[in-house]
Design brief:
mainly alpha, Sodium/glucose cotransporter, 0% strand, transmembrane transporter activity, transmembrane
């Protein structure tokens, strides 16, 4: 099937953007202090909390990378396996949620400081910025690709539009407004995906026709990948989710433990629906459009369906991308304000001053994210880099805070340093030897160092 852009689809994007901006402005009027801006006043009920957890996690990484790219490039089974790390991560956070709420910190850095000291906080802040600016950048580029493919708009113009929307929605009302737009976007996406699966399978001629038109390797368990290469795609998302500051902030923003538990269970159930749906749509797209960029597999299907259905899916995908982008941008700006500005530049800053600085940092980091994406050729590539920098640098140390009482400062900080350095060396200096994502090297290395250094230094202290 030949791709032909349809400018009429711009109406759906436009309507979505107007609704999001209007809702953001309305909710911004309810922001009076930093707690409102960063933790939504700790007022989120289970429904909104579930929506914002869902929308924040499932962004361009799934729509243009993740399940979409893997299903198109390697097949249905490897793509379905990407759901497993998410489910494990949600269940782990469910167990840790009461402890996360008890800490009451704005940032992951604050939690790490309490356990490991000031050096851990400073290092964590740098890691968050390295990873989150990268995550925001590929939301922008993913949105640009979507507009290019579906409406004919240039990728560059689409990326600029995405940057403007992401920055504005993050800055206008913080989590108070982001959580509401997230919830609306999340449920829009669920509906869009559920409607799309049967329609695109019908357009593609059914399962048998799809299977005939894809490479034989796409029906195998690993899709032609070696087992260790497949692990390189599974590990980054797991270890990002386990230590994701966005998720910790949202759990801390709930009304209470009961709301948090209900929201996380709802999030898990919905992921069991939408993650396979994304995989199936992208797999069908491989049959219909065998020569497109893998990251565009899901969005290409909007051009093969009736305009109303295609427009709903397009608006839903745009919603996920924009909400994920503004969530990570807000989270990164929070680190700059409370872990750097408030600790070293202006220790006496008032709450309102910190609020203004957070908004200013949102703009600065948003511009940096836009500039960063120019250096990565694909969404999947920058996704794997950002996930691994964070997953190896933060997650082992933060999990130890909640699940291993014996861990000490030397072990935690050593793990963070090794995780980041190993990732950067493997990805940038060595340029991914053997075509392996760095997660299969750096994450195990970080855990090993955490355990060995902790045990070794504890033994030395006792002697």
């Amino acid at each position: 099937m030949e791709l032909q852009a349809n400018p009429q689809l711009l109406w759906f994007i436009g309507i979505y953007a107007v609704i999001m901006i209007g809702l953001g402005i309305y909710m911004s009027k309810k922001v009076s202090n930093s707690t409102d801006f960063i933790l939504a006043g700790k007022s989120l009920g289970p429904f909104v909390l579930m929506g914002t957890l869902l929308a924040t996690w499932t962004g361009s990484g799934s729509i243009s990378g993740g399940e979409t790219s893997v299903a198109y490039s390697f097949g249905i089974l490897p793509s379905l396996m990407l759901m497993i790390p998410t489910l494990i991560g949600i269940l782990t956070l469910y167990i840790a949620a009461p402890k996360i709420r008890a800490f009451g910190k704005y940032t992951i850095s604050g939690i790490l400081e309490e356990k490991y000291g000031v050096s851990a906080r400073n290092l964590a802040s740098v890691i968050v910025l390295l990873a989150y600016v990268g995550i925001v950048s590929y939301q922008m580029k993913g949105f640009g690709f979507i507009l290019n493919l579906t409406t004919g708009m240039s990728v560059e113009v689409g990326t600029i539009i995405a940057a403007a929307l992401i920055i504005f929605l993050a800055m206008i009302g913080g989590l108070k407004s982001v959580s509401q737009t997230d919830a609306l976007s999340g449920f829009l996406m669920v509906g869009g995906l559920i409607i799309t699966v049967p329609i695109i399978f019908s357009v593609a001629g059914g399962w048998d026709s799809i299977v005939e038109n894809v490479p034989e390797s796409h029906l195998t368990a690993t899709g032609g990948l070696t087992n260790i290469q497949l692990m390189g795609y599974l590990l980054p998302s797991l270890f990002l989710l386990l230590g994701d500051q966005n998720m910790y902030q949202r759990i801390a923003s709930s009304k209470g433990d009961a709301s948090s538990r209900k929201a996380q269970l709802g999030w898990l159930i919905i992921m069991l629906i939408i993650s396979p749906a994304i995989s199936l749509i992208a797999f069908a797209s491989r049959s219909l459009f065998p020569d497109i960029d893998p990251g565009m597999a899901l969005m290409a299907t909007t051009l093969a369906m009736p305009i109303a259905i295609g427009g709903i899916l397009l608006a839903a995908a745009a919603a996920f991308i924009i909400t994920t982008g503004n969530s990570y941008l807000l989270s990164a700006a929070t680190n700059l304000t409370y872990d750097i500005y408030g600790k070293y530049i202006n220790k006496q800053a008032s709450d309102q001053k910190q609020l203004r600085m957070t908004k200013m940092f949102i703009v600065i980091l948003g511009v940096l994210a836009y500039l960063l994406i120019q250096f990565f050729p694909t969404v999947l590539e920058v996704q794997m880099y950002a996930y691994t920098v964070y997953g190896a640098g933060i997650t082992p140390a933060i999990l130890a805070v909640f699940f291993w009482k014996r861990v000490n400062a030397i072990g935690g900080i050593s793990s963070m340093v090794v995780g980041v350095i190993t990732t950067l060396v493997w990805e940038i200096i060595l340029d991914k030897p053997f075509d392996l994502n760095s997660a299969v090297i750096s994450v195990p290395a970080a855990f090993i160092v955490l355990i060995v250094v902790t045990l070794a230094t504890q033994k030395t202290t006792k002697e």
